[in-house]
Description:
The chain is mainly α. It has 12 helices and 5 strands.
Amino acid sequence: MFLFGAARSGTTFLCRILNAHPKVIMTNESAVFLQLGELIRRSHIGISEGIIFGKSYYKVWSEVLRDESRRLIEQFYAQVAQQESDAGSESSQVAYYGDKHPHLFTCFDLLEQVYQDAVCIHLARDPRDAALSIAKMSGDSYQDSLRNWKIFDDHNRAFIERADPSMIRCVKYEDLVEDPIGVTKTLFQSLGLDQHQRVIQYLEEYASVDAHTIKDHDGSGTGGNTDAFVQRTNLNLGRWKEVLTQEDQEFTDELICDALNHYGYPLCSKA
């Protein structure tokens, strides 16, 4: 199972909700799929990618890596499951494993070739709010951050449009904020799972906590301050209406008019 969306779209929080279920193991940006995808791609090109990629049989090596990638990934998640079990989870019952990563678009080709039976969850957030959060994180301007958001979204939407519809689950950040229990219950049902009590407990405890500040069992965590988290007060919804200049709004409507229409968000000029 793969969870993806543009940067600062709330994927970290949704990942943790999914991971609260005893039959799901979702790693938070372990990047194993990205690494394998990049290694396979560059190995297929050969020596022009660098001295370590070889002058002969590099395409054969690339194909071997691709063919064996699923086995390697399953070994990795088996060890993750063992660690989770040691930490007191019920991971022996795992029905889904996978990764959350905003940059999964860099290895969509690998996922399409090797994981045709996967479930792919796309989380969409109002791009204006997401871009404001990207700007806060990176220190870039709003307009540069919106351009950055568009790069993610162009790749993500192209993948969704060509993928088997049965593979795709689409969730909106705003819906998740307003009704985290109802939205996640529907999502789990679409996966053939009930909404385990552990998920409800997690939501009751962490629904108003910045997901980026929570540590995983391995001690990892992004840390830092962000406004890209789910809170029941809904204070972060539509923040763009308060802070975008007229110039920024006009820029937005011109740059991502199609995306706003696609996701059902009003243009700035009509909000």
